[in-house]
């Protein structure tokens, strides 16, 4: 192997220019030797004999003439059993292990293997000698927590192979050879339980991509009922600071009805990762009865960690997601915040002195965002099973204004938009997803004509409220006032959901359907309420009951009791259905 | 023996270049000019051309001045001798005391491994009801005071510093007015807190590059003390001046600005400082209170905006008061469940009623009729502002909670407060 070497000839921030003696390739990984440390870097531009490298570490102490070793490999991650439950940095360094080794601080130049090498996995072969296999075919399986982890022919084996040897069922480490394959030229390839894959190259070992048509249940009413997300779909959550993006992703990472969740904390606060890190091992996943950590991976490159590794972290995360998708699993990737990733690109682009686009973001911002979200999808695998990667990214627009490059580029490619509003979060109306501005192209769990009617009532109620600010309550008709109360009712008992309430924090689709119908009956009813005072009192009472109802366990005694009381209250005042409301639609 | 270079090739803004070998990125140098010595650090290497940023600025530097490389990056002395002392942004004494050279440590070190962090758990008491009751400050929190210029933000900082139950205070001043610097000094001296305080002060009259060093030098020292078990409170005022210094320097270096002239890495630059706030398991902690003045009272201005995305909430100072609505301590729920059983409920209840008061005020100003309920709220609002919001109020948390119940009982019947029955039974003042 002719691995190139080079010498540092320039340093500018985290960009280092290297004079190269031999062949280098774009995105190749190199190590810069600084004293006893070796700093990881990636080639991001090549200009005649010079390569420009972005360094994944702080560059202090690098000097002219320092030697550089190229590796011939692109920035890659290690794939194999043992990834679940781990906490990695953006380059797949296991952070707890790093802490054991280095203590409180992230010492630079320390890179550890991502997977435990001493752990034994109970391997069951799925092929026999003489079988013909190709990349991504399953050679055997090992149980990893609650999943059957498929040990596959590495995705970079581009030939057809004949199985020459395969080990018998038993316990092996990821370094043990579990099979020997012979390629068409008679070369033998040793297969272990792990291999590497470059993060910037999508894994596309599937037969076909399928349309994302099944809802991905989040147990948030506002999302599942009004702005659904699909398995294999994409969505974004833009919002000003403090509007609730992170809390929204945290509850989704707990409650989403998927097999695996990958949390990519990209350029945000370290403290927020700690919450997940400390809480998840204690939380029991009701679906599996196991700790939530067993289905979770955290990729964390927080805001004070080196910027180049932040850029890499979202790719690391999505590659791990694609890998588990290859096992027929539904994987959800939550990235917080994609704006920080875009800013990392902007910083690099600035150092490369590229011609800047809007707000100094590089011209390729849009296409880069688009190709990242393209890595989501629902697919049919070669063995006929289906798997999916769903991507949800938060966006942190400057000044909370959605008219900025990252939000706009993201809105072009995603399937659902959950826009958080400052107004709603200031009023402590959580989740602060704006019920009128947000949208989804996916099919939800409830009948869309009915949810649209509910939305139009919110809109009408909102209009009356605005009008009332000008003319006062006295100048508003009782009928209009009731419409206002109806809109307010939907907001208080259905849109708002208390993330910190033990019951209300996650609502099953069954329950959403049930309580939506009762609410729908109320808001579309013709009500016998003659004065505003009476209307207000009635609605406030009903609201109080409904909130208590939302807080009581599904089908429990108190649930049933409150439901009976609510139905009785409706029966007392309902005189018919307000046809004019049923005919309404939200103007898009 | 380090080599001395006496040919400066170019001078532009605060940046000079020399031809030199064997220099490391980030290395420190000493530039000797006719005005005296200044430190400078290497900000770019290109072949044998070394670019240095001169801390005292480029003004007055001549091409014949001497540059001596020191072979190490920026450092500061660390020992108990720092206590009670006052330094510049580059660590030189500004109090006539001796220069400190023992036990030099580097500034701007690596960040804490997230896996080593712990969930914050201790309240920091300040005696201000708007903080203690409504937006509790938590040990290891990073929190800015968003303020319109002209508000008494430095007075507020000084008060918190005086009252906070911490082991020591580090004050980092950037672009501080000389009067404000003296104000801090006098206040801490009078309060007997000077001996547990260290100042790193850049005043508006000092060279701009030095203001960039203030957060790093303050936080490097804070980190060492924290590792030794000290609870350190770091006050940074004013981070908008720090950001403006960054902007000015970026523009003179012809970097492409991203937003209103600020460099594209403003977020990362601010974050790498604020993220130094930490609670070390088994040792001490760093809590950061910053000041971010908002040009034109505009929260969407790049500095407060980027800050808000980094910090764990903010105190919004307006009209001489900490506004209950713009303010938020994102960590308060970690601690306010264990203070007193009525804390959370009272906090929510009183704020809801205050919001209702503001609505009644609005209705009143538009000439709508005031109901009985409105009248009650109007009375409540006035008392609340006077007894709780006023910055001169100074009572411990428990006293403030008791006061809260008193105010409620003065204005409302128990049912009207919307508070839970069991709390009302226990805490409602009997007359
Ligand atoms: N669903 C919710 N229920 C109750 N409180 C919430 C909810 N969402 C957000 N909050 C409150 O708002 C605060 C900020 O929320 P969060 O951290 O999610 O904001 P963010 O949008 O991620 O902000 P940033 O962009 O600064 O990271 C939380 O600390 C919490 O106090
Ligand atoms: Mg967030």
What does this 3D model show about the protein?
The complex is a heterodimer of chains A (588) and B (431). Chain A is of the alpha+beta class and 588 residues long. Chain A folds into 4 domains: 5-74, Thrombin, subunit H; 86-114 and 206-440, 3-Layer(aba) Sandwich (Rossmann fold), CATH 3.40.50; 121-193, RNA polymerase II/Efflux pump adaptor protein, barrel-sandwich hybrid domain (OB fold (Dihydrolipoamide Acetyltransferase, E2P)); 448-583, Bovine Mitochondrial F1-atpase, Atp Synthase Beta Chain, Chain D, domain 3 (Bovine Mitochondrial F1-ATPase, ATP Synthase Beta Chain, Chain D, domain3), CATH 1.10.1140. In chain A, the strands form 6 sheets. In chain A, strands 8, 18, 19, 20, 21, 22, 23, 24, 25 and 26 form a 10-stranded mixed sheet that branches. Chain A has a 6-stranded antiparallel barrel with strand order 1-2-5-4-3-6. In chain A, a hairpin with a 2-residue loop joins strand 4 and strand 5. The longest helix of chain A has 24 residues, at 448-471. Chain A is globular. The mean pLDDT of chain A is 93. Chain B is α/β, with parallel strands linked by helices. Chain B has 3 domains: 4-73, Thrombin, subunit H, CATH 2.40.10.170; 81-334, 3-Layer(aba) Sandwich (Rossmann fold), CATH 3.40.50.12240; 343-427, no CATH class. Helix content of chain B is 34%, strand content 26%. Chain B contains 12 helices and 23 strands. Chain B has helices at residues 129-132, 153-163, 178-190, 208-227, 239-252, 266-274, 302-308, 332-335, 343-365, 372-389, 397-411, 421-427, and strands at residues 4-5, 8-12, 15-19, 27-33, 36-46, 49-54, 66-73, 75-77, 86-87, 104-106, 123-124, 137-138, 142-147, 168-176, 197-203, 231-237, 257-259, 262-263, 278-279, 285-293, 313-318, 321-322, 328-329. In chain B, the strands form 5 sheets. In chain B, strands 9, 13, 14, 15, 16, 19, 20, 21, 22 and 23 form a 10-stranded mixed sheet that branches. In chain B, strands 1-7-4-5-6-3-2 form a 7-stranded antiparallel sheet, with no helix packed on it. In chain B, strands 8-10 form a two-stranded antiparallel sheet. Chain B is elongated. The N and C termini of chain B lie far apart (82 Å). At the A-B interface, strand 1, helix 1, helix 4 and helix 6 of A face strand 5, strand 17, helix 6 and helix 7 of B. Strand 1 (5-12) of chain A pairs antiparallel with strand 5 (36-46) of chain B. The structure holds adenosine-5'-triphosphate and magnesium ion. Adenosine-5'-triphosphate (ATP) sits between chains A (239, 241-247, 268, 396, 430-431, 499-500) and B (308-309, 330). Residues 245-246, 268, 336 of chain A line the site of magnesium ion (MG).
């Amino acid at each position: 192997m002719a691995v190139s070497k080079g010498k540092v000839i320039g340093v500018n921030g985290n960009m280092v220019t290297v004079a190269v003696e031999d062949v280098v390739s774009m995105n190749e990984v190199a190590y810069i030797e600084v004293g006893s440390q070796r700093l990881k870097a990636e080639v991001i531009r090549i200009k005649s004999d010079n390569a420009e490298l972005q360094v994944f570490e702080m560059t202090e102490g690098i000097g002219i003439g320092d030697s550089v070793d190229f590796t011939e490999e692109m920035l890659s991650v290690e794939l194999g059993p043992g990834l679940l439950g781990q906490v990695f940095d953006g380059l797949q360094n296991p952070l707890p292990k790093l802490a054991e080794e280095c203590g409180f601080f992230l010492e630079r130049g320390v890179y550890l293997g991502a997977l435990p090498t001493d752990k034994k996995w109970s391997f069951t072969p799925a092929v026999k000698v003489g079988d013909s296999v190709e990349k991504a075919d399953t050679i055997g399986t090992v149980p990893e927590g609650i999943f059957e982890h498929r040990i596959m022919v590495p995705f970079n084996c581009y030939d057809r192979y004949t199985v020459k040897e395969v080990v018998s069922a038993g316990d092996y480490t990821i370094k043990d050879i579990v099979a020997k394959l012979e390629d068409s030229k008679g070369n033998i390839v040793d297969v272990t339980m792990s291999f590497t894959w470059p993060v910037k190259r999508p894994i596309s070992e599937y037969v076909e991509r399928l349309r994302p048509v099944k809802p991905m249940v989040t147990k948030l009413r506002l999302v599942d009922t009004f702005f659904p997300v699909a398995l294999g779909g994409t969505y974004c959550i833009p919002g000003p600071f403090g509007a609730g993006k992170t809390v929204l992703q945290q509850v989704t990472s707990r409650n989403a009805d998927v097999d695996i969740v990958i949390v990519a904390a990209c350029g945000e606060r370290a403290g927020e990762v700690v919450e997940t890190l400390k809480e998840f091992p204690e939380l029991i996943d009701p679906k599996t009865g196991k700790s939530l950590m067993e289905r979770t991976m955290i990729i964390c490159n927080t805001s004070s960690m080196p910027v180049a590794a932040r850029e890499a972290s979202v790719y690391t995360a999505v590659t791990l997601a694609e890998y588990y998708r290859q096992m027929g699993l539904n994987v959800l990737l939550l990235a917080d915040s994609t704006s920080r990733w875009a800013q990392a690109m902007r910083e690099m682009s600035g150092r490369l002195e590229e011609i800047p686009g809007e707000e100094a973001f590089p011209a390729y911002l849009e296409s880069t965002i688009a190709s990242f979200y393209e890595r989501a999808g629902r697919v049919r695998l070669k063995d006929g099973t289906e798997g999916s990667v769903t991507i949800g990214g938060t966006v942190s627009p400057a000044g909370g204004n959605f008219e900025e490059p990252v939000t706009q580029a993201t809105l072009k490619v995603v399937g659902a938009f959950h826009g958080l509003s400052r107004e709603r979060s200031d009023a402590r109306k959580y989740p602060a997803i704006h019920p009128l501005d947000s949208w989804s192209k996916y099919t939800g769990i409830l009948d869309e004509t009915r949810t649209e009617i509910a939305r139009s009532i919110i809109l009408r109620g909102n209009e009356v409220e605005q009008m009332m600010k000008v003319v006062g309550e006295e100048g508003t008709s009782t009928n209009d006032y009731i419409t206002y109360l109806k809109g307010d009712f939907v907001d208080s008992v259905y849109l708002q959901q208390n993330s910190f309430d033990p019951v209300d924090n996650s609502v099953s689709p069954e329950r959403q359907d049930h309580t939506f119908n009762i609410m729908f009956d109320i808001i579309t009813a013709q009500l016998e309420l003659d004065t505003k005072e009476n209307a207000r009192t009635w609605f406030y009472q009903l609201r109080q009951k409904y909130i208590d109802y939302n807080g009581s366990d599904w089908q429990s005694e108190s649930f049933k009791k409150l439901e009976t009381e609510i139905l009785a209250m409706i029966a007392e005042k309902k005189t018919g259905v307000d046809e004019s409301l049923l005919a309404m639609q939200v103007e898009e | 023996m380090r080599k001395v270079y006496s040919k400066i090739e170019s001078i532009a803004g605060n940046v000079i270049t020399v031809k030199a070998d064997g220099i490391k990125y980030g290395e420190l140098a000493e530039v000797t000019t006719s005005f005296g010595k200044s430190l400078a650090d290497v900000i770019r290497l290109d072949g044998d051309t070394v670019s240095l940023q001169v801390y005292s600025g480029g003004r007055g530097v001549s091409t014949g001045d001497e540059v001596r490389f020191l072979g190490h990056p920026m450092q500061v002395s660390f020992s108990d001798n720092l206590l009670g002392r006052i330094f510049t942004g580059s660590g030189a004494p500004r109090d006539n005391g001796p220069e400190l050279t023992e036990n030099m440590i580097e500034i701007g070190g690596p960040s804490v491994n997230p896996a080593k962090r712990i969930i914050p758990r201790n309240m920091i008491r300040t005696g201000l009801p708007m903080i203690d009751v409504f937006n509790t400050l938590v040990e290891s929190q990073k929190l800015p005071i968003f303020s319109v210029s002209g508000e008494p933000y430095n007075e507020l900082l000084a008060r918190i510093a005086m009252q906070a139950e911490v082991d020591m205070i580090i004050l980092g001043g950037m672009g501080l007015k000389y009067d404000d610097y003296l104000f801090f000094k006098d206040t801490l001296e009078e309060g007997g807190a000077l001996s547990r305080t260290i100042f790193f002060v850049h005043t508006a009259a000092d060279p701009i590059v030095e203001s960039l060093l203030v957060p790093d030098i303050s936080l490097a020292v804070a980190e060492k003390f924290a590792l030794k078990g000290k609870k350190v409170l770091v006050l940074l005022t004013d981070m908008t001046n720090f950001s403006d210094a960054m902007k000015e320097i970026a523009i003179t270096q012809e970097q492409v600005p991203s937003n209103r002239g600020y460099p594209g890495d403003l977020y990362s630059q601010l974050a790498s400082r604020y993220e130094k706030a930490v609670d070390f398991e088994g040792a001490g902690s760093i809590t950061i209170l910053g000041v971010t003045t908002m040009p034109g009272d505009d929260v969407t201005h790049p500095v407060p905006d980027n800050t808000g995305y980094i910090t764990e909430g903010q105190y919004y100072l307006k009209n001489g008061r900490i506004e209950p609505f713009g303010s938020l301590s994102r960590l308060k729920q970690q601690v306010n469940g264990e203070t007193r059983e009525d804390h959370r409920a009272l906090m929510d209840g009183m704020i809801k009623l205050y919001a209702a008061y503001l609505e009644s005020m609005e209705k009143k100003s538009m000439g709508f009729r005031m109901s009985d309920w409105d009248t009650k709220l109007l009375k409540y609002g006035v008392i609340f502002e006077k007894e709780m919001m006023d910055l001169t109020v100074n009572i411990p948390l428990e006293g403030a909670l008791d006061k809260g119940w008193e105010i409620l009982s003065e204005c409302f019947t128990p049912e009207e407060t919307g508070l839970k029955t069991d709390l009302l039974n226990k805490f409602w003042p009997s007359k």
